[in-house]
Specification:
Elements: H1 30-34, E1 43-48, E2 62-71, E3 74-79, H2 88-99, E4 104-109, H3 119-132, E5 136-139, H4 149-161, E6 165-169, E7 186-191, E8 200-201, E9 209-212, E10 216-219, E11 225-228, H5 231-248, H6 254-264
Helix pairs in contact: 2-5, 3-4
Length: about 270
């Protein structure tokens, strides 16, 4: 039996009755939400280990690449053409472009070749992406630092008020991690159904959305591909859908985007009360 990432339990198994909700918001369905959309006009930041520019899965969509380096002890965002040091960022980018092939990607490298990085680097890279003005940012990483709790909270609120949708994977291990458990982000954990648009809304947060994250075929380093499991690979499925919706309905706020995702989610429906 596959050991599932933490926070994924609400979305697993054949019985989804605990996710049952009242009928979807009137007039909102998937055709209205993203029918015909390709993500054109939307810029998505991948805050991760970098993106391999020439990987076939990225399809030439990378328009800018930066990295956070420490200059005299201070995290500093610099231009970067180092590619992907691990493969993780390219995997996330490939999932997003498979759903939304015409998005523009911005790589913000904050993780090293061991897929580890400092919380201060994560903060600096995320702040840069928000202030650059991307519409969506995929955060398939998190910090367990309680010391940085306040800084992350302030930053994701800034994103929320600037209409930047932060799609954040919950940590694969139990316990609090940031910013994935803040209410202003699109928090995502994994389900095991092999469908890139199969989506669940969890009416009992902190993790709000479930997307495909078990045995997912992904792009990997050096032009390769592999299969992997993790909340990291669930989040970019949601980021791709958010990009599709944002392209079709420009100017939506994160609140509105969350409501649309909840309305079109695959949850079972309860009988609406009159």
């Amino acid at each position: 039996m596959v050991e599932l990432p933490a926070w994924s339990e609400p979305f697993q198994g054949d019985d989804h009755s605990r996710l049952a909700r009242a009928a979807a918001l009137s007039g909102i369905d998937r055709e209205w939400a993203w029918g015909g959309s390709t993500g054109a006009g939307i810029t998505v930041a991948i805050v991760d280990s970098g993106i391999e520019r020439d990987h076939p899965a990225v399809m030439g969509r990378l328009v800018e690449s930066v990295a956070v380096e420490f200059v005299e002890g201070e995290p500093t965002v610099v231009a970067d053409d180092g590619g992907d040091l691990f493969g993780h960022g390219t995997a996330c980018a490939g999932i997003i472009t498979a759903l939304a092939p015409d998005v523009e990607l911005v790589s913000v490298r904050v993780l090293g070749a061991d897929l580890r990085g400092k919380g201060a680097a994560f903060l600096a890279g995320l702040e840069w992406a928000i202030k650059r003005g991307v519409q969506v940012a995929n955060l398939s990483l998190s910090s367990k630092s309680e010391a940085l709790y306040g800084a992350f909270h302030e930053l994701v609120d800034l994103a929320y008020f600037r209409n930047v949708a932060l799609v954040s994977a919950a940590n694969n291990l139990p316990g609090n991690s940031y910013p994935s458990l803040f209410s202003s982000v699109f928090s995502v954990a994994a389900h095991s159904e092999p469908d890139p648009v199969r989506l669940y809304y969890n009416p009992s947060p902190p993790v709000e959305f479930g997307a495909w994250g078990v045995d997912v075929p992904i792009a990997w380093k050096d032009g390769g591909r592999t299969v992997a499991t993790g909340n990291s690979f669930a989040a970019p499925h949601v980021a791709g859908l958010v990009a599709l919706i944002s392209a079709r309905h420009p100017g939506l706020t994160p609140f509105e985007l969350k409501a649309i995702l909840a309305a079109v989610a695959d949850n079972p429906r309860t009988q609406a009360r009159g």
